Amino acid sequence: MSVLATTERNGHTLDLLTVNDLRIEVSRLGAELVSLARCNPAGQWTGYLVRDGDVGKNPHGWNNHSTVMGYYVHRILNEKTFYHGHEVRGGTHSFLRHKIFPVPTVGEGSLTYHFSGEDRGVGEYPYRVDFSLTYALRDGVLHISFHFANRENFATHVSFGLHPGFGVTDLATMRVVLPAGRYTRHLAPGNFLNGETEIIDFPGGPMPFPVAELPGSFLLDLAEVPDRIFTLEDPATGRKTTLDYSEVPYLTLWSDGNAINPFICIEPCWGLPDHHVQRPFEEKTGIQLIPPLVMLERSFTICPS
Question: How far apart are CA 175 and CA 168, in angstroms?
Fold first, then answer.
């Protein structure tokens, strides 16, 4: 059974979708997921995102919940780059986070948010590439799908991802469990790649990275990680979140380290930030190529339990 509602809260228009015991709230500002909650047999709802459902101004640290990233991710150097000679300007995680999306398309247990490439502003992105994002609740799992439709008669490039912050009781006691594999860490002092990498042969288990260094981010290439299932465990509350990133090429781990609203971001990324010595947009590490007149589709799932 699906229940759909729309409400206004703290200046945000929110779409609420409930399917059985799973509920999401999505703000039309940036098509951002601001709540992911599950109901227990006693009828009590438990939220899984940081400040779950609270869209007021956060006086203590990061103000978002799950930023949508695209048409590029993370940062471009000095907020300016060039794509086939066209100037592209923008701040952290690109411009979608600042767009007011129209009324979503409602499907069977799903919401799809659309952005037309014709509506791009000057300097945001030079080509006709439409974007849509689908949140679907199926069998107690949240499925998130990105769609980029290239309307041009030539190949275009995008990078994209999601920036979900999961609430935890304490960063010192939470557990992020990584699957076995060979991870390539891209070093990015000051939030930009310096070209150095570190190989981490990992047997699987709790992440091998110091919590104190999370504000500096860990950018991980997953090419040699065969089973890309990640879990977050919060022993104090019993919350467990399972992330199926089978289609995801890069993972970013980040937290601002704030103890008042503790959280960790476990971010699926199709691309990485700029280098300190900037490359053209189409040569950014991890950039995704879309052939002429083709739809690029990628997805992942989040299962709260």
Answer: 10
Q: Give the tokens for residue 277.
A: 């010595």
Give the strand order in the sheet containing 2-9: 2-9, 12-19, 22-27, 32-39, 45-47
Q: Is 165 helix (H, G, I), strand (E, B) or coil?
A: strand
Q: The tokens 């991870």 sit on which residue?
A: 183
**What is the enclosing helix (H) or strand (E) of 285?**
none
What is the spatial distance between Cα 270 and Cα 140, in angstroms, rounded to a whole number? 25
Give the separation between CA 295 and CA 34, rounded to whole angstroms.
Answer: 27
Half-sphere exposure of 203 (CA within 13 A, CB side): 0
How far is residue 171's CA from residue 213's CA, in Å, rounded to a whole number? 12
- Burial pattern 233-264, b for ≥16 Cβ within 10 A else e, equals bbeeeebbbbbbbeebbbbbbbbbbeeebbbb
pLDDT in tens, 200-226: 999 999 999 999 999 999 999 999 999
pLDDT tens, 38-72? 999 899 999 999 999 999 999 888 999 999 999 99
d(Cα 189, Cα 275) in Å, to the nearest integer? 10
Give the SS3 label for residue 189. helix
Domains of the chain: 70-100+111-304 (2.70.98.10)
> 300: closest CA among 109, 160, 179?
160
Residue 76 CB burial class (10 angstroms; 0-12, 13-18, ≥19): buried
